[in-house]
Amino acid sequence: MKITTIISSILAAGLLAGGLTACASAKEKQAKLEAQAKVTKADAEKTALAKAPGGTVVESDIENENGKLIWSFDIATPGSKDITEVQVDAMTGAVVNVAKETPAEQAKEKNEDAKEKR
């Protein structure tokens, strides 16, 4: 009985450490991309919020998409369950794309992102 508890504890610790490592490497990747950006997150966010008046940023990140460094903002707007995703070029500050996402589309995107990170 004790050996089962010990083995379970070791496995749990290993899984936890692996998760922390993945989290740290994701943060490192984000930091490297941010260092390459010529447009700050704050400036890109102002640009994005102008495309969704009255909205609030609920999630943001920087990513390399199709060879372009992009700030991506998910913006919630009062009175709507949809999210407005605004992408801003991190080198020029220009809006690259504005799209509305339904809750179902958001869930699908999160699932796809989770699969990519594995």
Structure description:
There is one protein chain. The protein is α+β, with helices and mostly antiparallel strands and 118 residues long. It folds into two domains: 1-36; 37-118, Nuclear Transport Factor 2, Chain: A (Roll), CATH 3.10.450.40. Helices cover 51% and strands 28% of the residues. The chain has helices at residues 2-36, 41-50, 103-117; strands at residues 56-65, 68-76, 83-89, 95-101. It has a four-stranded antiparallel β-sheet. A hairpin with a 5-residue loop joins strand 3 (83-89) and strand 4 (95-101). The longest helix has 35 residues, at 2-36. The protein is globular, with a radius of gyration of 19 Å. The model has no long low-confidence stretch (mean pLDDT 83).
Jot down its keywords.
118 residues, 2 domains, 4-stranded antiparallel β-sheet, 51% helix, globular
Give the C-level CATH assignment of the largest domain: Alpha Beta
Overall, the morphology is: globular
Uncertain spans, ≥5 residues at pLDDT below 50? none
> Would you count the extended β strands for me?
4
CATH architecture descriptor name of the largest domain? Roll
Order of helices and strands: HHEEEEH
Using the coordinates shown, work out and report the CATH topology of the largest domain: Nuclear Transport Factor 2, Chain: A
Order of strands, widest sheet: 1-2-3-4
Whole-Å distance between the termini? 33 Å
Instruction: Evaluate the radius of gyration.
Output: 19 Å
Q: Roughly what is the average pLDDT, rounded to an integer?
A: 83
Overall structural class, as computed from helix and strand content, comes to alpha+beta
What is the domain total for the residues? 2
Helix proportion = 40-55%
Summed up, the helix count is: 3
Largest sheet: 4 strands, antiparallel
Proportion of residues in extended strands: 25-35%
